[in-house]
Fold these 2 entries.
Entry 1:
Amino acid sequence: MRQAPTFVVWLARWLLVAVFVGAVVVQIPREARDLFDAARNGQSESRTQRLLYSAEVGGVRQLDVFDKAAALIPERSSYSVAWSPAAYATEPGVNTAVPFAQYWLLPRRRVDRSVAWILDWGMDPASLAPGARRVVPVGSHVWVIERSGT
Amino acid sequence: VSYAGLLGLSALYGLVGLSFLRLLGLTSARPASWLDLPLSIVTGWALTGVVLSLVLIAGGDIAAGLVTAGALAGVASIISWRKPMGAWSFLPARPSRVGWVAGAVMGGFLTLFVLRGLWWPGNFHPDVWSFWIPKAKAIYYFGGLDTGLGGFTDQVHPDYPPMVPAIDAAVFTVTGHSDPLVLPLHYSLLDVAFVLAVVSILQRRVGLDVALVSGAVLAALPGFIVLVGSALGDESLVVAATLAVLVVCTGAETRESRFILLAAVFLGAATLVKNEGAMLSLAVVLAAVISRLVRGQRQIAALAGAPAAAFILWRGWIRANHVPLNPDLRLGRLLHPLWLVHHTHHLRSGIGGLLHQSVGMQWAFVLPVLILVALSAGRRSNETSRFSLLVIGFWLLGYAAIYWVSIDAPWTAVAYNVQRVYSPIAVTAAALVPIVLLPANPSDAAEDWRSIMAKIRRPGSAPASRGPEPHQAQ
């Protein structure tokens, strides 16, 4: 048989719900303002800025490296990435830049073996790929290298 | 950016979902209620995601998956052409003034969701650009689950199920190119449909006014907003897991299998969204069985069948393609007492971290859970309350177990993902509050009120009970 709750139980239940709803209602202006600000910020920025924002937040300084590399390495090619601690001098966000390049450069396949193209942060191109067909600087101490004979 | 393609994909979701709901007899060909439309869209999203994943597992590509989903919708529509409208679909009453205000607040937030999705400032979570989008691009460019270098399985977390990348790749396919800035709009629209679908389900159980207030609270809940439009797997997990629990709760009270089938679709989708989805689905099935909200072998098999099949198929594909499982996270360690004893500090750090992070700093995540637990504990004799308590409890235990078997430094793992871990729990708890709070029969609430008023006026007296309710023993 169904029994009606006592007044105390009934009151306690609704007080709990009032606390929950109240806590959310108090947040409404701030949450709405944050959402509006995010939309306004996005509208005021260029498409490129929005696409590269994650890399920027990750500390990458040379943001145009990714587009320049994409323009040089053909879409159906494979490439490898090389970097050395020396890269930190000009690119403190190299830890973010390397995985971000992998995301940015798809459908180019990143591989860990010797292939036609190398995206190089901070390593000397002459020692990395002796006799390379092309070495194109795409940033400060950042190069796209096309090997010879590939 | 081709927004027409995105609208077309949303229309496909709506068509697939509507035909399935109609096949189950849960709605009519022309939706009786405008609230059936968002429910159709999220149901269609879940079904399309499951179909895309299965087609990819079978070796197909996204185009084949989309065609299959559309064809299945067509077949379902033909089969259910003359099926009578289900009793679940009805025109809601007009909301009261409170309902209008709540609806306006909810509408304001949903509009902001869409605007932020449209002009997403680019602040993707590192997980999104480091593996969710690369996996989607790999599917889009290489024509399926490519196992070669740079392909699907050469990304971070290759053992994660494919539904989110498959849906993202479908977005790329219909918009014509792999533009990541389209994804926040797609997911924001999905979240709008999700909030309205929650209102749609709740209003059948607790009335439109309460459902609109719940929708407003959900839309303004920081624990939900943090995921809206993010394109994280956790966002899809929140949608699938919450709807599965809600449908089990509201539908199972009628003991009809068609609700179980709808819940099974969402559980299947949750299983294919993330590895944690399998744990969440298992917890829902266990809670439904233990609380006797789902009874009989057929109903239990129907509820458990979809997530089990999804899990087995994905694990089979992983094994067949020699994809390494995440070495940091082996659930098999739960069966090794010595390993567990030596790693109790993981469990302590995990639980401590969850409590500290959430109670100390993130009220928006833990408060709905506490409220729900408090409400449910007071109504333990009620099947729905028991189910709610068990689901939330099992989910928390499940995440604690995951932290326990992880070889990551526990505090680092908790600090990195506690918000996202808590989101499905918090959002589901918030959605369940009105169901646990209010009796299944709306007239019971009025009777409670009359009884309490009578007791206040004349202590010791109360109106005679109307007798037992066939659907709700309390």
Entry 2:
Amino acid sequence: MTEPCRTLAPQVSAYVDGELSPTDAHAFARHVDTCAACRGLVQDLQRLRKAARTLGPIAPASDLWTRLQHQLPSDPPSVAAAARPRLGGVWWLAATAVVALGAAAWLIDRRVLPSSSTELAPSAIPAGNAAPLDAVETAVAEIDRAAQPYAAVLLELERSAADVADTGLARVLRAQLDAADRAIAAGRAALAIDPESTIAREALVDALRRKHAVIDAAGTLLQEVQRLDPERAARAAVLLTKG
Amino acid sequence: VSGHVDLNLAARCQAGVPGAFEELYRAHSPRLFGLACRLVGRRDAEDLLQDIFLAAHRKLRLYKGDAALGTWLFRLATNLCLDHLRSRTAHAGKLTDPLDDEPGAPPTASGPVLGVIDRVDLERAIDTLPPGCRTVFVLHDVEGCEHREIATVLGISDGTSKSQLHKARLRLRRALAPERTR
């Protein structure tokens, strides 16, 4: 046991973990080169560290889930009837959005993507670029208008922070709508650069359809939850989360 | 993508979608059970694992998706394990404990003393560590947490976390070394 060992030994773990400054690490390495005891300690701690990383998960007893299941509340928190009344005022908004969605979907199918999703029919593209772009912008505006009531519903759900299920679902809805909005913005930007790009147009249409699907699934979910029908609400939630 | 999947799973659990919470349990229980076994011992780990998932069921509404669901559950589990340990130990609030050997004591052997480390032996040796340095060792060396995270969760400084880790490693080295070299 030497004086350098006494000084440097407390740094062994930091050295093994790569946490010493370059200067300290260099000094330590020089000492280790000449000190068998410290070199042995470094090797052992490296071996120990490596072995610890191999200690993986441990499977609990197979019947533990069954025991746990019995302790879980029987009613899913999302359909707790008591939490609903204060949200009652916003459901009509969801219903009105469904009507608007129909118009938006029609616009997408008939005006933005006339014949198929892979190729625009020549007859659907008037001379110049203005008309198809107008059609795209109209569809985007219709989708935005259709989404507005849902934005109000989402806001209401987010305000009701005490309602366990609704805040969670609102977050999912918000994330999916935001993702669709980003895709729509990207599609519009691409079309602005090259108005005749079929790929950009298809990407935009796809994004619009995605947003439509999210809003549609949200509407179904909200209506089913409103009816306090747990099974149908659960099925609607699955549809929504697949959106 | 994983964040989206986590949010979806959390939402499905909250919506009471059949099988969703079991999916959460199946995906995360092995890691959390391993953590609980190593922190509080196998005897209490099963009860604690149930407490962890009951707490998760209650608190899922607080999950905001800003971390992976596994990370969120891991933090929840760590806190419950530490609460359990604190209730068991006489130490008030802090899980650091003095060891009988000086931290960073110079090596006494003239070379390496460890051969191939058997997992079962290592698990057994970890179980013999005092709670404070065992917690730091498990969180750092087994679970891969940073000293800063460990310091936060234990309410100690980074330096204390580092010294506890070093103590734990020295103790484990001694425990795992063949008797003739101790």
